[in-house]
Design a protein that fits this description.
Order of helices and strands: HHHHHHHHHHHH
CATH class of the largest domain: Mainly Alpha
Length: about 270
């Protein structure tokens, strides 16, 4: 998923970031000039850190652990990465490379392009759940993160949304892309002495495991909807948000007396993809 290619800007010396106030030395797709053998580069360090994070989680990631996995001394990493905070910033930006590259090729209605962008983001965060938390704790937005954000805003501005609505809508959509990676199946069972149900789980088993703190007759809505409470699908949220955006755009255009509809707007063919 992550290219090992060394970017043209990746010179790999700590002097590139002279003070703590300088921004991270961002990675950019390069010309496949990764040095042969064990030579270090920032990209190689970041890719290894991502692999370790997937194995053991972000909390367990340390510069020493990355160095050990690369079979180098911890001090050698600091010639390329200032500290763990910079490393995490680079990791977040690298996982968005493929999203940005694919989105640049999108065509079709604004709804289709927006949905595709959101699904790609969701897949990235689902593959890296530990990194989602970084956005809560704080992260420096890099070149790929900015390009990802710009694509979303540009799609909506071209569709006819004003700047404020475009920015607010992309914020809402990107937050949903992350939130939808946190299924309710992560909820602990009510009875601590029982394990989580595994495999194909019936509605009754889900009720017994997670929703038995009240008698069923007091929560008929929960019981009727229990199979939809896993939160594992991004599509329902996207359908609701995009439908709301279509309605808002129609109201905006009607208020301006423009009539008709914007590209792919209300009344256009529904994007089923």
């Amino acid at each position: 998923m992550y290219s090992q290619a060394s970017p043209a800007t990746e010179s790999g010396h700590s002097s590139d970031r002279a003070t703590a106030g300088d921004q991270p030395r961002w990675l950019r797709p390069g010309d496949n000039d990764e040095p042969a053998g064990p030579a270090l580069s920032r990209r190689r360090i970041v890719v290894k850190a991502l692999e370790l994070t997937e194995e053991c989680g972000l909390d367990a990631l340390t510069m020493r652990r990355v160095a050990s996995a690369l079979e180098v001394t911890p001090m050698s990493l600091y010639n390329h990465v200032a500290d763990k905070a910079e490393l995490v910033d680079l990791m977040v930006d690298v996982v968005l490379e493929d999203v940005v590259a694919a989105t640049a090729q999108d065509t079709g209605t604004w709804e289709h392009r927006l949905r595709s962008l959101c699904r790609r983001n969701h897949e990235v965060w689902k593959a890296h759940p530990g990194i989602v938390r970084v956005y809560v704790d704080g992260v420096t937005i890099g070149p790929n993160g900015l390009a990802d954000l710009e694509y979303g805003i540009d799609i909506l501005r071209r569709a006819g949304f004003d700047d404020q609505d475009a920015g607010a809508a992309v914020t809402l959509l990107f937050r949903w892309c992350m939130a939808a990676t946190l299924p309710m199946d992560r909820t602990r069972p009510v009875r601590r002495d029982r394990p989580r149900p595994s495999g194909e789980v019936s509605a009754g088993e889900r009720m017994d495991a997670y929703f038995s703190a009240r008698p069923r007759e007091e929560i008929p809505g929960v019981e009727a909807s229990v199979m939809a409470l896993s939160g594992t699908s991004i599509d329902f949220g996207l359908d609701v948000i995009i439908a709301g955006l279509q309605a808002r755009l129609a109201e905006t255009r009607a208020g301006k007396g423009l009539g008709g509809r914007a590209e792919g707007g209300p009344g256009g063919s529904k994007d089923g993809g």
